Amino acid sequence: MDIDRPSDPQVSVVSSDGTMFHTTLKSILLSGTIKDMIEHIGEGGVENMGAIPLQNVDSKTLEIVIKWIEHHKDNIQPTSEEIKDKTADFIDPWDENFLEMDLDKLYNLITAANYLNIPQLLWLSTRKIAMLIKNRTPQEIRSLFNIEDDWTPQEIEAVQKENQWCEEK
Amino acid sequence: MQCNTINRKKLKMEDNNDEIEFRDIPDEVLQHLFFYLSPKMLKVCTLVCKRWNKVIENSHELMSQFVLNIEDKSNFEIAKAQKIYRNHYSIKTFKLTTEIKEIIVAHRLRHLHISNCTLHAEDLNECLKDLGILESFTGKTIKIQEKSLLKRAKFKRLKKLHIDFSDIDLILVFDTDALDTAYFATSSEDRGSAVLQILWKQVNLKDLTIGGYLANNFLKLNGVCEIALNTLERFRIERGPNKTIRDFLNDPLIKFLTVHQASLISLELIYPVDLNIYKFVLNHMPNLKYLDIPVTTLSELKTESFNLLERNNVINSIRFVGQFKNLPKATAIVDLCPSLTSIDMSDLTISSHFMLLLFHLSQNHSQIEVLKIPNLLHDYHNGIYFPHLKEFFVKTIPDQEHYCKFIQQHSKTLEKVTIANSNDDNFLKFLVIEQITACPNIKYISISAQTSIIMRKFNKLVDTNHEWTLVVNFRGPSELKFVTLKFNFPQDCVIFQDKVMVHSEEMIRNMHTLEDMGLNRFVNKYK
Q1: Which residues in chain A are closer than 8 Å to B65, comparing Cβ atoms?
Q2: Which residues form the SKP1 component POZ domain (chain A) (predicted)?
Q3: Number of domains comprising chain A
Q4: How near does any CA of chain B get to the CA of A5, in Å?
């Protein structure tokens, strides 16, 4: 292997609040958004490319994202379609542990994963929220996520009535 | 699904570092989230707020998880529904007509279930006309009027067709070659050829069940053995043929099995079949792994005749169906299958004969990994031991002592334990549960019991270092409720008395259903 030109070159990204992070090309390519960007400038341009500005991701969140992509850089990433097909969802214990964070951080992570187009991370983090929803009542869900109840009693009754007509598969 | 569509407005990431809140999460991400929820939870989610309701309503993929259930037992007329489904459609009185069709098409419903009604052929035609997207259709107890008017329609995606005790003509409506599961049980014997007509076309059919009156004549139909369903893995005959005609079915059945001998993995003939059938099944079905044996068959067969059967090394799973009468023949038949790793005897009646069979199995089939039984007798034999037992299913546990012993003996290998039906007011089984939780490899426990008993007697779970899942079917005063509790030992300590003490978020989350059921106090002990 050519020593002068490492197979996995360094890449820098800058968060919305101006903090620079260094990671590797292999890791950052897990982001569909950045992959598109880099493909656009061509392979050769990577080394000469400056830091990639990510205006929609703050430093706290970017740090978390980088931790995740670096851990998963050598894993084959499933496509969005494949992820959706997974009904028996086995979660890597590392990921399970990784996602132990408070809700604010999780929201940030979800929006960042969506913006950066990292399907696996997006699904992991949304799944985490879905697990929080499980077995809760509407009121509990509202208070958990700080959601305003904008239904009138009449409206909610109507929805409930309609719900009676659909049965689970 | 595209993940890169981003709604910048909703992101609201500004320089002054506003925290993102839940409401900032874009609709498409919210939709991802809902995919992880069961239809039941989706219903709850529609009630949270207008936005959630809209996101769910607007997603065809989410909505298609629901079945539109049209049912009215009282007058065989579908007339009572005032509002159907979620689109604010108001229908005062209807038969199965365009209006329903419009609802189904509007929501791209892919699963339709109709039961207990009399349909006019023209209404059905009208309803199904534009429903090419249908993936499954279930029709139970349906009568059709003016059958001659029924029209065939194309259903390219129909994978599952379940016609149960209905007019056979209903089958004729579906023009499809994509089925993988077919269940045909009819309310009359005539015109079984309709079934043949549809089976002829299938290229992917894996699972076929024949029942009702159709069981009487299906195998005798002209041409039934010429249909080679190359992909057929599972064949069942349910609610079997009349006694008088059973013997006439043996030859055609063997013919049918010959045609499908290469692909069949599972065979369930739930009626007493002839010895010749077993002869064929054991010796000429190279890939058959799963076999159902109705015990009435055993009682009708002569013991000597078992000498005519050869051993089979492929079958690894046997289920006995029906009331148990005759032991020697059951041991004879299990001994013909030395590769047996799974045996389901949960349907049998408990008796000393049964215990002897169990004893025989433990002596001669030590490789058994899955054991399903109704329960154990009081004069339980200590000698019953399966060194590789991983899964244990028992219907009831009237007496804890033997089960404690049994579990203890198998503690090293047990991974999955189910106690299915312990609704007798017997709380002593909690000693058994303690015993189960002490197994080092246990991953799954399922019990059902009355809520009050669970609350009162589920005192303390023993520490293990492994994560396992406990599925408790709580039987409340009015309905059965299911709760899945996931514990992480030794971090979580669970004490059920008049209160629950937990110290992990995961636990608290799962406790909600308990709370709904009247357990108002739970103490978050360690936080």
Answers
A1: 168-169
A2: 11-74
A3: 1
A4: 31
Residue A115 in domain = yes
Chain A neighbors of B512, CB-CB under 8 A? 135-137, 140
What does the block give as tokens for B514? 């308990």
Chain B residue numbers with beta carbons less than 8 Å from the beta carbon of A122 are 3, 29, 32
Rounded distance between C-alpha atoms, residue B369 and residue B341, angstroms: 5
B233–chain A nearest CA distance, Å? 23
Residue in chain B lying closest to A158 (CA): B88
CATH number at residue A117: 3.30.710.10
pLDDT at B378: 63
B123-170 residue pLDDT tens: 788 777 777 878 888 887 778 888 888 888 899 889 999 998 888 888
Radius of gyration of chain B (CA): 27
Domain at B8-58: CATH code: 1.20.1280
Count Cβ atoms below 10 Å from residue A143 Cβ, excluding itself: 12
Per-domain residue ranges for chain B? 8-58, 390-527
Question: Does A168 fall in a domain?
Answer: no
Q: Is residue A49 part of a domain?
A: yes
Strands in B196-302 per DSSP E: 207-212, 234-237, 266-269, 290-294
- Determine the Cα–Cα distance for residues B219 and B216; give it in Å rounded to an integer: 8
pLDDT value of residue A168: 46
> Band of the pLDDT at B382, cuts 50, 70, 90?
low
pLDDT per residue over A126-154, tens digit each?
Answer: 888 888 888 888 888 998 888 888 888 88
Chain B CB within 8 Å of residue A49 CB: no
pLDDT of residue B348: 83
d(CA B76, CA A87): 38
pTM of the model: 0.61
Residue B397: CB atoms within 10 Å: 25
> What tokens does B408 get?
């203890």
Question: Buried b vs exposed e over B8-17: b needs ≥16 C-beta within 10 Å?
Answer: eeebebeeee
> ∠ at Cα B171 (B165, B173), nearest 5°?
135
